[in-house]
Amino acid sequence: MALLMLFRHAKAAAALPAQQDFDRPLTERGRNDASRIGKVVAEIGVDQAIVSAAKRTCETWEIAARNFRSEPPASIEHALYLCRPNQLIERIRAVPDSCRRVVLIGHNPCWHEVALWLAAGADAGILQHKFPTGALAIFSLPGTPWTKIEPKLATLERFVTPGTLP
What we know:
By secondary structure, this protein is α/β, with parallel strands linked by helices. It has one domain (2-12, 24-164): Rossmann fold, CATH 3.40.50. It is 27% helix and 20% strand. The protein has helices spanning 28-44, 55-64, 85-93, 110-118; strands at 2-8, 48-52, 74-77, 101-106, 136-141, 155-160. A 6-stranded mixed β-sheet has the order 3-2-4-1-5-6, sandwiched between helices. α2 (55-64) links the parallel β2 (48-52) and β3 (74-77). It is globular and about 45 Å long. The model has no long low-confidence stretch (mean pLDDT 94).
């Protein structure tokens, strides 16, 4: 069984005048939240991290990855910055079958929409209203290869937000 984790970047600062959205860093709260959610990801383990190239997503992963004894390989990808759901789904389908636990760090609304697309039946209930900054949706997938993921195929095992952690 494969695990797919969708991790929305932690809380980012508002853009400064003349600052591009792409370049917004995390706030202090965001850095703390990234570390806390990173502990959850590290407990599960990851074979591959796939990260949007935006500053806030890279910073989220950099902080989260400090919780691993040995940092897993990460792919920093410009195409994930503000991508559309179909683009993210195609990226997931391109994950090598040798990777059984994958975390993707990116942005809303795409992460929320793909989480709803993945979640089977009643599992989607907790995801209906929002996917806040720092949230982590953990899905299990049946023995299906990544190339064959389809809507409502996954089971939402856990939905974690910084506010739900002790």
